[in-house]
Amino acid sequence: MKNFFLYILLFSGLCGHAQFGTQIFSKDPIINMENFDKQRTHWGYFLGFNSYGFKIDYKTTPQVDIIEQSTTGFNVGLVGNLRIFEHLDLRFEPGLYYTQRNLIYTDPALINSWDKLREVKSTYIHFPLLLKFSATRTGNIKPYLVGGLSRTLNFDANERVKDDNITGDRFRMKTWTNNWEIGAGIDIYFEYFKFSPSIRGVFGLGDELVRDNDPNSPYTGNIESLRTRAVLVNFTFH
Question: Helix (H, G, I), strand (E, B), or coil: what is residue 165?
Answer without folding.
Answer: helix
